Each structure stands twice: as structure tokens, then as C-alpha cells.
Amino acid sequence: MNEEFDINEAIEAIKAGTPIDGKDGVLAPLIKQLTEAALEAELETHLSNEIRNRKNGRSSKTMKSSVGEFDLEVPRDRNGTFEPQFVKKHQTHMSDQIEQKILALYALGNSYAQISEHIEDFYGVHFSKATISAVTDKVIPLLKEWQQRPLEKVYPFVWLDAIHYKIKENGKYVSKAIYTILGVNLSGRKEILGLYLSENEGANFWLQVLTDLSNRGIEDILIASVDGLKGFPEAINTTFPQTEVQLCIVHQIRNSLKYVASKNQKEFMKDLKRVYQAISKEAAELELDRLEEKWGDKYPIVINSWRNKWENLSYYFKYPEDIRRIIYTTNIIESVHRQFRKLTKTKGAFPNENSLLKLLYMGIQNAQKKWTMPMRNWSLTISQLAIFFEGRLDKALEL
């Protein structure tokens, strides 16, 4: 890439189908030529301000750019006072274009080896895994800032769930839980409120997570939807005592079927549907009584589970269809976790916590670009919530 740029040759090359930029593009010699000319001009300006100084040859260094690698001849001065600005000392990249490409590929779940291959194919520049890791590490300060950002005072709906990954620690891989909090703000738009990492999923750590959400500005959550983790509702109400905690009906059904013999599952599910699809809480309780009469002797563990959790399983019955549909299951946050799994499917495990968190953070940034529209029928939903939760939305909505 050291040849001089010839405009006529470039035009003929373009006509012949040679790409303008990228690896082996016709602009490659021009980038080198223009960069060296800019450095010469900088030195001339510098020398005009120093009487007892003059040029002192050139030094060469390899530059990486969007058109590949080239040897850049950097002019020097005798006194060593010249500090080039166009290409600074120790700078080895012409622009952040390649870095942005690396980050974009990383955010799509590509491995370091795949990223290195893509970059070399397109730009003609080889990046080691260590270099790519260093580039992606630039995301970590943004991640930390995002994790500590202030939140809105009121969220009508919040979902909380965890997903597990293998992370290397003290020379061995251990399973750790990523705690994800998804909220819907007063505008009806989805927002990931935070990511937290711990060795195990448990109510005690969820209490720390909820305390952090409170410290970051959340004063009220109307309805929180969660799975059936023991102690979860109590952990939420310790921090947000007015919050209604709806247990995920889908999780409860799945857990129930684990204890029902396969030969009875079809008939049992037919009867169970009459419970969770009832038109009201009272009607659901009548159906639950019938379910117990028919199946209670055979499957007491299942019936007792529904009875013991009924308060948190049945909140959704008092709401109209639009709100029921939103809160009766945690599927909405599980879909976020499905996206996480797509991002991490090429990774059997992670060398450290930051390597996982920075990837999930970048995946979130990509996902949230698509979350531009409010949830369906949001104007009606928020109006209904203002009635059901009288006074709790007035200040936030300026009613």
C-alpha cells in the first residue's frame, strides 16, 4: 500500500469494478498520501514558530485503517518538540471505524475468532483476540454508567427473572445468575432497568437488587410479575410495600404438571384451565374447589401449591383483559432471555464476569433500538391503572 495515488489509474480501476474503499480499494494509496501530507503541513507550522529547529528525517509505523494496513512515514524535528495531532504518537488506527465494526460484530454475538476473520476479510487488517478484547473492554465504563443511571419514579409494570451462565472463577467454572429487571415506563415503553450478577438466584439477593432500584430513584411499582421463587413476593414488598406481586401463571402450570402422571395430564389440564381462565376470582375459586374435589386425593402437592400461592396467583383476575394479558406471565422477560441466549450461544462459558456483562449490555442496546412504540392500547391501559391505583399515578402523570 505504499504506491503513490494516481487519479487516472483510480478512475480506470473503479470502471473495472475495483471497490472504492475496504481491503484493496482504490483509495488505499490516497489515504497514505493525504495523511503524510497533513503531517508535513503540521510540522511546517510547528517549525515556523521555533527558530532553532528543523526537520530531522522520518520514522515509520504501521497504521490500520478502513482500507487496510500501510506504512506511514511520520516527519520528525531535530529538537523533538513536534507533537503531531492528525496522527498522534502511539496512535495505530486512522479512525474508530474499525473499532465500531468490531463492536457491532460483537454485539451480534460473534466470537473473537469470527470477528478477527470478518475484519481481516473486509479491511485486510489482522486483529488478535487480545486486541479485540481490548476494544470491547471500552464498553465496560459505559456499562458501569448504565448500571448506575437514575430511573423514573414510577413504573406501572416490572418483571424480574434470572438466567444462568458458567463463569470462570479461581481456575474453575461456576454457575452464576444474571438478574434481569424489565420495566414499562409511564409512556408504555419497555426498558431494561438493570442487570445484576450473583452466584445463586435467591430472595435475599433479589432484596439487594430491589434496594438498588429504590436507591436509583424508583419510588413506586404498581404491579410486579415474577416466577414462583420462594420468598420473592416478600422481598419485593419489603422495599415496595404497595406493589402487587403477580406470580407467573405459566410457571405455576409447568411446575404443577411435573407432579401429574402423563396419563392424567390432558384431563387435568382441561380442568385446570377452568381455574386460570375464569372470568373472575370468585369463579376461579369455585373451579379450584372442583379441581380439588376431583384430583386432591391423587395430587395433593399440586392443589396445596395453588392454595398456598393463591393470593399472588389471583391478582390478575380483578383487571380487564389488556392488563391481564400484560401481567399474568413473565413471558415478556423470558423473550429478553431468549435474545441473550442467541447472543451467547457460541460461548460455552465466560472467562470473567465483565466478558459476560459487556456482551449482554451491548445486546440490550441493540434490542432497545427497536422498543420505540408503546405497548398495545397503552392509553386505555394507563387510564385504567389510574383508576385501579387511585392517587398513585396522579403526580407522575400530572393529573
Automatic annotation (TrEMBL):
Biological process, per Gene Ontology: DNA transposition
Keywords tagged on the record: DNA recombination, DNA-binding, Transposable element, Transposition
Keyword Metal-binding found: no
Keyword set includes DNA-binding: yes
Signal peptide positions (record): none
GO molecular function: DNA binding; transposase activity
InterPro entries to which the protein is assigned, alphabetical: Transposase_mutator
Pfam families: Transposase_mut
Residues covered by region (Disordered): 50-70
Domain of life: Bacteria
PROSITE patterns recorded: TRANSPOSASE_MUTATOR (PS01007)
Free-text function comment from the UniProt entry: Required for the transposition of the insertion element.
PANTHER family, per database record: MUTATOR FAMILY TRANSPOSASE (PTHR33217:SF8), TRANSPOSASE FOR INSERTION SEQUENCE ELEMENT IS1081 (PTHR33217)
Family recorded in the similarity comment: Belongs to the transposase mutator family.
Protein's UniProt name: Mutator family transposase
